[in-house]
Amino acid sequence: MTLAQSGKTREFTVTSMDGRLRLDRFLVRHAPEFSRARIQSFIRNGFVKLNEAASRPSDTVRMGDRVMLVEPPVKLLDLQAEAIALSVLFEDNDLIVINKPAGISVHPGAGRNSGTLVNALLAHCRNLSGIGGKQRPGIVHRLDKGTSGCLLVAKNDAAHLDLSRQFAARTVEKIYLALVAGKLRRNAGSINAAIGRHRVHRTKMAIAREGGREARTDFQVIRSGVAATLLKCCLHSGRTHQIRVHLQHIGHPILGDREYGARPGNLPRPMLHAWKLAFDHPRTRVRMHFEADVPADFESAMRELLP
Question: Cα separations (Å) of 276 from 136, 139, 176, 250, 293?
Fold first, then answer.
């Protein structure tokens, strides 16, 4: 791939390594800071040209083709800063690492423009990266509303681009704690199963019989009882609801996870905690390691369910 960049315009030349890819997949590979959905939006709205012509996400690229991506201007934020307390694990001029509490959404969504982590960050930080768009400033990755733990946020575009590349290259270490139903037959293992959108319930994900995106979760038993097991889970990909779907797939759904088949009992949310996070600092290249304390509701569930 050759790349010429002028301002917010990038030009790519397709090589033999990329031939026969869909246009949207080609751009996700070479501009990993953007999600596939956002790339598809760029294409449909005329921000991408294939050999100087209008294009579709499904167009196939061939060796020698030229692809031009003009990044649309970042829209001004229309969100309100809110004085919501944050548990900050680390902060400098480039990034901030938060211990996110369960019950707070990371960013605004349909019908929800307040009370999110983004609203809190707008009050806490002078600047946030604009790459994520007007609803997701600084958000490099996300956690589900019911998940607690380590969350990384970029304060400028350079940091956001570099951190996004690390996530895409899978050099970011993401370790979770999960309290699951039942007792596992194995003390450790790896779940390799592609994940896609559920065919009926479109807000859910599911194991994909065909298509889908490859996903791998490694797990190790930490403590085990008759009714529940505490697992350490290491993600080697970052699919939506990945751990929840994978653990349901092997018959041990996360306790409290109503959406994926676990009986909640008296648990208020899925017992999933983003425990540890490690990445290279985008400016200094120093490897950084963070650990988020296990929250009180998770500790209480372990005391009740594990010997």
Answer: 23, 18, 7, 24, 9
Domain range list for the chain = 2-70, 79-168, 174-274+298-305
Q: Which residues are tagged catalytic?
A: 144
CB 230 within 8 A of CB 224: yes
Q: Tell me, which fold does domain 2-70 have in CATH? A: 3.10.290
When pLDDT is averaged across residues 134-150 and rounded to a whole number, the result is 85
Statement: 79-168 belongs to CATH 3.30.2350.10: yes
pLDDT category at 133 given cuts 50, 70, 90 is: low
Same CATH topology for 79-168 and 174-274+298-305? yes
Q: What is the pLDDT of residues 34-51, one digit of tens each?
A: 777 788 889 998 999 999
Q: What is the CATH number of domain 174-274+298-305?
A: 3.30.2350.10
Reported pTM: 0.76
More confident residue, 201 or 236: 236
Contacts of 206 (CB under 8 A, 6+ apart): 195, 196, 197, 198, 199, 245
